[in-house]
Amino acid sequence: MATFFADLISSIFTPGPTPSIIIATNASFAALQVVLLLLLIITYSIHFVVLSFLCAGLWWGINWFVTELESANRKEKDAKQSSDMKKGQGPDARKLEDSGTETEGGGTQIEEGPSDSILGSQTQGLLRPDDVQGAMRKRISSAEASSGDLSTDSEWDKVSEAEEVGR
Protein backbone atom coordinates (compact mmCIF):
# COMPACT_ATOMS: atom_id res chain seq x y z
CA MET A 1 0.00 0.00 0.00
CA ALA A 2 2.87 2.39 0.79
CA THR A 3 4.47 1.66 -2.58
CA PHE A 4 1.18 2.52 -4.29
CA PHE A 5 1.14 5.97 -2.68
CA ALA A 6 4.80 6.50 -3.53
CA ASP A 7 4.07 5.52 -7.14
CA LEU A 8 1.03 7.79 -7.13
CA ILE A 9 3.06 10.79 -5.99
CA SER A 10 5.85 10.14 -8.49
CA SER A 11 3.36 9.60 -11.34
CA ILE A 12 1.98 13.10 -10.85
CA PHE A 13 5.16 14.41 -12.46
CA THR A 14 5.13 11.81 -15.24
CA PRO A 15 3.38 12.86 -18.47
CA GLY A 16 0.51 10.72 -19.66
CA PRO A 17 -1.82 8.38 -17.83
CA THR A 18 0.09 6.08 -15.53
CA PRO A 19 -1.45 2.93 -14.02
CA SER A 20 -1.39 4.32 -10.48
CA ILE A 21 -3.21 7.51 -11.55
CA ILE A 22 -5.86 5.46 -13.38
CA ILE A 23 -6.41 3.21 -10.35
CA ALA A 24 -6.64 6.22 -8.02
CA THR A 25 -9.10 7.97 -10.36
CA ASN A 26 -11.34 4.93 -10.66
CA ALA A 27 -11.26 4.34 -6.89
CA SER A 28 -12.16 7.98 -6.24
CA PHE A 29 -15.11 7.90 -8.63
CA ALA A 30 -16.33 4.59 -7.19
CA ALA A 31 -16.18 6.05 -3.66
CA LEU A 32 -18.07 9.13 -4.84
CA GLN A 33 -20.79 6.96 -6.37
CA VAL A 34 -21.14 5.05 -3.08
CA VAL A 35 -21.43 8.33 -1.14
CA LEU A 36 -24.03 9.66 -3.57
CA LEU A 37 -26.02 6.41 -3.29
CA LEU A 38 -25.94 6.60 0.52
CA LEU A 39 -27.07 10.24 0.45
CA LEU A 40 -29.89 9.31 -1.95
CA ILE A 41 -31.06 6.56 0.41
CA ILE A 42 -30.89 8.86 3.45
CA THR A 43 -32.51 11.97 1.94
CA TYR A 44 -34.64 10.68 -0.97
CA SER A 45 -33.52 13.80 -2.92
CA ILE A 46 -33.53 13.75 -6.72
CA HIS A 47 -30.41 15.94 -6.63
CA PHE A 48 -28.23 12.98 -5.76
CA VAL A 49 -29.55 11.02 -8.74
CA VAL A 50 -28.59 13.89 -11.03
CA LEU A 51 -25.20 14.20 -9.37
CA SER A 52 -24.70 10.45 -9.74
CA PHE A 53 -25.40 10.66 -13.50
CA LEU A 54 -22.98 13.58 -13.83
CA CYS A 55 -20.34 11.65 -11.89
CA ALA A 56 -20.87 8.56 -14.04
CA GLY A 57 -20.58 10.61 -17.24
CA LEU A 58 -17.36 12.23 -16.12
CA TRP A 59 -15.99 8.86 -14.99
CA TRP A 60 -16.81 7.29 -18.34
CA GLY A 61 -15.34 10.28 -20.21
CA ILE A 62 -12.03 10.10 -18.38
CA ASN A 63 -11.71 6.35 -18.98
CA TRP A 64 -12.64 6.80 -22.67
CA PHE A 65 -9.97 9.49 -23.05
CA VAL A 66 -7.33 7.27 -21.43
CA THR A 67 -8.13 4.35 -23.77
CA GLU A 68 -8.01 6.65 -26.82
CA LEU A 69 -4.66 8.04 -25.68
CA GLU A 70 -3.25 4.55 -25.20
CA SER A 71 -4.50 3.38 -28.61
CA ALA A 72 -2.98 6.45 -30.29
CA ASN A 73 0.35 5.78 -28.59
CA ARG A 74 0.17 2.13 -29.70
CA LYS A 75 -0.57 3.14 -33.31
CA GLU A 76 2.31 5.62 -33.28
CA LYS A 77 4.68 3.00 -31.92
CA ASP A 78 3.55 0.46 -34.54
CA ALA A 79 3.94 3.00 -37.34
CA LYS A 80 7.45 3.83 -36.18
CA GLN A 81 8.39 0.14 -36.06
CA SER A 82 6.95 -0.48 -39.53
CA SER A 83 8.83 2.49 -40.99
CA ASP A 84 12.04 1.16 -39.45
CA MET A 85 11.38 -2.25 -40.99
CA LYS A 86 10.64 -0.70 -44.42
CA LYS A 87 14.00 1.06 -44.33
CA GLY A 88 15.64 -2.31 -43.73
CA GLN A 89 16.58 -1.41 -40.23
CA GLY A 90 15.47 -2.94 -37.01
CA PRO A 91 15.18 -0.89 -33.86
CA ASP A 92 18.61 -2.15 -32.76
CA ALA A 93 20.28 -1.20 -36.05
CA ARG A 94 18.98 2.33 -35.83
CA LYS A 95 20.39 2.75 -32.32
CA LEU A 96 23.82 1.70 -33.54
CA GLU A 97 23.83 4.20 -36.40
CA ASP A 98 22.68 7.24 -34.41
CA SER A 99 25.49 9.54 -33.43
CA GLY A 100 23.28 11.57 -31.14
CA THR A 101 23.93 14.85 -32.94
CA GLU A 102 20.66 16.67 -33.36
CA THR A 103 20.03 18.69 -36.49
CA GLU A 104 17.63 21.50 -37.25
CA GLY A 105 14.95 19.13 -38.58
CA GLY A 106 14.71 17.27 -35.28
CA GLY A 107 16.33 14.08 -36.58
CA THR A 108 19.80 12.82 -35.98
CA GLN A 109 22.85 13.35 -38.11
CA ILE A 110 25.27 10.53 -38.82
CA GLU A 111 28.84 11.75 -38.84
CA GLU A 112 30.61 10.61 -41.97
CA GLY A 113 34.22 10.99 -41.04
CA PRO A 114 37.08 13.28 -40.10
CA SER A 115 36.13 15.82 -42.80
CA ASP A 116 33.27 17.12 -40.65
CA SER A 117 34.31 20.10 -38.56
CA ILE A 118 33.58 19.89 -34.87
CA LEU A 119 32.19 23.43 -34.80
CA GLY A 120 29.94 22.78 -37.79
CA SER A 121 28.30 19.71 -36.26
CA GLN A 122 27.73 21.41 -32.90
CA THR A 123 26.11 24.57 -34.29
CA GLN A 124 23.69 22.88 -36.69
CA GLY A 125 20.55 23.62 -34.66
CA LEU A 126 21.46 27.15 -33.57
CA LEU A 127 19.77 30.26 -34.92
CA ARG A 128 21.52 32.05 -37.73
CA PRO A 129 21.72 35.87 -37.81
CA ASP A 130 19.48 36.05 -40.90
CA ASP A 131 16.77 34.13 -38.99
CA VAL A 132 16.88 36.70 -36.21
CA GLN A 133 16.87 39.66 -38.59
CA GLY A 134 13.92 38.25 -40.52
CA ALA A 135 11.58 38.81 -37.61
CA MET A 136 11.16 42.56 -37.45
CA ARG A 137 9.43 44.35 -34.62
CA LYS A 138 6.65 46.82 -35.23
CA ARG A 139 7.37 50.24 -33.79
CA ILE A 140 4.83 51.70 -31.45
CA SER A 141 3.36 54.96 -32.68
CA SER A 142 2.94 57.85 -30.27
CA ALA A 143 -0.84 57.44 -30.42
CA GLU A 144 -0.61 53.80 -29.29
CA ALA A 145 1.86 54.43 -26.48
CA SER A 146 0.88 55.81 -23.13
CA SER A 147 2.42 59.05 -21.88
CA GLY A 148 5.42 57.49 -20.12
CA ASP A 149 6.34 54.81 -22.65
CA LEU A 150 8.51 56.75 -25.08
CA SER A 151 9.83 60.22 -25.66
CA THR A 152 9.90 62.05 -28.97
CA ASP A 153 11.95 64.85 -30.38
CA SER A 154 9.05 67.26 -29.98
CA GLU A 155 9.14 66.71 -26.21
CA TRP A 156 12.84 67.57 -26.16
CA ASP A 157 12.07 70.68 -28.22
CA LYS A 158 9.55 71.73 -25.57
CA VAL A 159 12.16 71.27 -22.84
CA SER A 160 14.76 73.31 -24.73
CA GLU A 161 12.19 76.09 -25.41
CA ALA A 162 11.32 76.21 -21.72
CA GLU A 163 15.02 76.55 -20.85
CA GLU A 164 15.46 79.41 -23.35
CA VAL A 165 12.42 81.24 -21.94
CA GLY A 166 13.73 80.84 -18.40
CA ARG A 167 17.10 82.50 -19.22
UniProtKB/TrEMBL annotation:
Q: Where is this region: Disordered?
A: 73-167
Biased composition regions of type Polar residues, renumbered to the chain: 143-153
The UniProt transmembrane annotation reads 20-41, 48-66
Gene expressing this chain: PKR1
Q: Single GO cellular component annotation?
A: endoplasmic reticulum membrane
Output this protein's name: SMK killer toxin resistance protein
Composition-biased stretches (Basic and acidic residues) = 73-98, 155-167
Write out the entry's keywords from A to Z.
Membrane, Transmembrane, Transmembrane helix
Q: Name one Pfam family in it.
A: Pkr1
What's a GO biological-process term for it?
vacuolar proton-transporting V-type ATPase complex assembly
